[in-house]
Amino acid sequence: MRSPYHRLLEEFNRASVRYVLVGVEGFNQWVPDGQRALETTDMEMAIADDRRNWEALLGAIARVRDPESGEKFVVVATNSLEAEHIDISSLAKRRRWARWLSLRGWTLVIEMPNWGYHVETVIDVSGFSFEELEEDSVVFDRRTVPMRVAALHKILESKRLAGREKDKAFFKRYANLIDAAIRSAKARSRGLKPDLTPREVGRRKPRLK
Q: Which candidate, 154, 156, 148, places its Cα nearest to that of 192?
């Protein structure tokens, strides 16, 4: 059974939400087949910061429920100093929040209760605009749901430019895996398609547990 986060990605794709995976989860998509991906508790995605895209994104979130409990996602907007709960229970409320978000550029934290995992939408990614991340992004369907992912070299460069302690530790601890991902990306980049076409994106990959 697919998690609510896979269902969320499906809804993003159906609604044509403009997003690109970055961060550790983005890096994980580039990890060569047969090698263990890095454990993470969040999925970081850059998104196009315009009202139409925010409306599509909030609408997609509102349509997803936990397949077991029936619960919906909890959505919070934050700028690291303040936080606002986002009520997406109606179209009118989603439109108002979309206007609000498009004027502020806050991070959206999307979390399903009791799953211990969350999605973060970001506007500012170190070193790159959303358009720069989108222009050479590729699509993976390694986990049964097509997902748009930033180019590997941009994911790594953004982490280098961020310069946080956890980013420095990432390069030291996973140097061998990073090298393997770079070699793999070069070898297979020609086989990746830039369009979101379910069930027709590259070669089928084994489902990751």
A: 148
In this structure, the number of other CB atoms found within 10 A of the CB of residue 180 comes to 15
pLDDT one-digit tens code per residue, 131-161: 999 999 998 876 678 899 999 999 999 999 9
Is the pTM here over 0.90, yes or no?
Answer: no
Mean pLDDT across 111-131: 93
Q: Maximum CA pair distance of the chain?
A: 50
* 19-22: strand order across its sheet: 83-85, 74-78, 107-111, 118-122, 42-47, 19-22, 147-149, 138-140
What SS3 state is found at 159? Answer: helix
The dihedral over CA atoms of 27, 31, 188, 134, expressed in degrees to the nearest 10, equals: -10
Instruction: Of 209, 159, 150, 158, give the one whose Cα is nearest residue 185.
Output: 150
